[in-house]
Design brief:
The complex is a heterodimer of chains A (290) and B (130). Chain A is built from seven helices and six strands, in the order H-H-H-E-H-E-H-E-H-E-E-E-H. With 290 residues, chain A is α/β, with parallel strands linked by helices. Chain A has a domain at 55-246: Pyruvate Kinase, Chain: A, domain 1, CATH 3.40.1380. A five-stranded mixed beta sheet of chain A has the order 3-2-1-4-5, with helices on both faces. Chain A is elongated. Chain B contains two helices and eight strands, in the order E-E-E-E-E-E-E-E-H-H. The two termini of chain B are 27 Å apart. Chain B has two domains: 4-85, ATP Synthase, domain 1, CATH 2.60.15; 88-129. Chain B is an alpha+beta fold and 130 residues long. Chains A and B meet through helix 2, helix 6, strand 6 and helix 7 of A and strand 5, strand 7 and strand 8 of B.
Chain lengths: 290, 130
């Protein structure tokens, strides 16, 4: 049985931990709000970009003169996995969910005899994939020093991917990130970004458009930008998701610490009372013996 | 004067959404103006100034890398970067010029180089005018 002193120290230490987790939860809540606002503010651009690309690209699907980014280079051998995770831990299963999805995907591709290359964005993804796929990680991008994710970061990653594609270093590129459904729900998602997948049906053109310059040329300039936009929204959703997951994890930790303090306090008080009773009995029986 | 809906969107946020009378845009194949009832056009934009005229006055906005979508419901401009001319600070100007210079340095074919040099000139001219 732990002594009273030990119990007291234990309670103090759990209380200190609780204070820290509480503070982290509040910080995460504040950051979550900002991240959510950023993600929402970016939505109109992504939506319109997607609409225009869909409209333009549906006309080109299956055609030989379609831009390379749209039709792909005709092969399906080398896969590039871009794994976006958080820079920091202590956010529950957030990072491990994304890296697990990426790992399963990589294993399935390898089993099918394909080659896999991995580009990690965020430190945690690299850490999680290093053991099994360390040799396949060709590059890692760390965003630790970045306070607010700007579009230029997405453009930086996108130009890296474009350069690799132009050099024929991969055939298909898939993006892994966590979709932000709500504060308590993030869904790890895989999304193919090269060749560009045209999602949804093109809205029936309400009017005949004039194109300046030609459609093909516009598509050629817009496709890389659309990829950057997809990367950007993935990074923003990740940032919001990370904060949401962190908030939930820290809320849990705070509650657990509270439960623990309650239990320890009860044990402490029982022990204290037992000791007092014992001392009383000793005194009384000593007095009676006289 | 008849007005139409104009929206300027950057990846980070919706920069401007207003009913305006006229918008002048720096299209890749030449500048053009949009009034209410313009026929639908999809055009890429080069770096330059957008001029927005509305009842409240005239605004100038610097844009880099974007395209304009003139639809029957109005005009939408998607720009990679959009800065109000009034907010163009010297350091922003310097970084924008630097970006254009990087493009010149990165250009591989002579054709691309010519384009990049021309773009650099435009950026310098536009920014010094602002």
């Amino acid at each position: 049985m732990a002594s009273l002193k030990e119990l007291k120290n234990r309670i103090a230490s759990v209380k200190a931990t609780q204070k820290i987790t509480k503070a982290m939860q509040m910080v995460a809540a504040a950051k979550l709000r900002r991240a959510q606002e950023a993600a929402e503010a970016a939505r109109p651009y992504a939506k319109r970009m997607n609409a225009v690309i869909t409209n333009l690209a549906t006309g080109f699907v299956g055609r030989d003169d379609a831009p390379l980014l749209l039709k792909g280079n005709g092969k399906d051998q080398v896969h590039l996995l871009v794994v976006c995770t958080a820079e920091r831990g202590l956010c529950g299963g957030f990072n491990s969910q994304i890296s697990r999805l990426a790992r399963e995907h990589a294993n399935a591709l390898l089993a099918a005899g394909k080659d896999v290359k991995i580009l990690t964005v965020g430190k945690k993804g690299a850490d999680a994939l290093r053991r099994e796929h360390g040799g396949r990680i060709i590059d890692r991008i760390e965003l630790r020093s970045v306070k607010q994710i700007g579009f230029d970061i997405a453009v930086g990653i996108q130009s890296k991917i474009m350069a690799m594609f132009a050099a024929g270093e991969f055939d298909v590129c898939t993006l892994f990130y966590s979709e932000f459904k709500s504060v308590i729900q993030q869904v790890p998602t895989a999304k193919q970004i090269v060749p560009v997948k045209v999602s949804g049906q093109a809205a029936a053109p309400a009017a005949v458009y004039d194109y300046e310059p030609e459609e093909a040329e516009i598509l050629e300039t817009l496709l890389p930008r659309s990829i950057a936009t997809q990367l950007f929204s993935a990074l923003l959703e990740n940032a919001a998701g990370e904060m949401g997951a962190k908030m939930a994890a820290m809320d849990n930790a705070t509650r657990n610490a509270g439960d623990m303090i309650n239990k320890l306090s009860i044990t402490y008080n029982r022990n204290r009372q037992a000791q007092i009773t014992k001392e009383l009995i000793e005194i009384i029986s000593g007095a009676e013996a006289l | 004067m008849a007005t139409f809906k104009f929206e300027l969107v950057s990846p980070e946020r919706l920069v401007l959404s207003a009913d305006v009378e006229q918008v002048d845009l720096p299209g890749t194949e030449g500048d053009f103006g949009v009034l209410a009832g313009h026929s639908p056009v999809l055009s890429t934009l080069k770096t330059g100034m957008i001029t927005v005229k509305s009842g409240a006055g005239t605004d100038k906005i610097y844009v880099r890398g974007g395209f304009a979508d003139v639809g029957i419901n109005g005009l939408t401009v998607l720009a990679e970067k959009a800065i109000n001319a009034a907010d163009l600070k010297p350091e922003v100007v310097a970084s924008e010029i630097k970006l254009a210079e990087d493009d010149v340095a990165a250009a591989k074919t002579p054709e691309a180089k010519d384009k990049a040099v021309a773009a650099l000139e435009v950026v310098k001219a536009v920014l010094s005018a602002a």
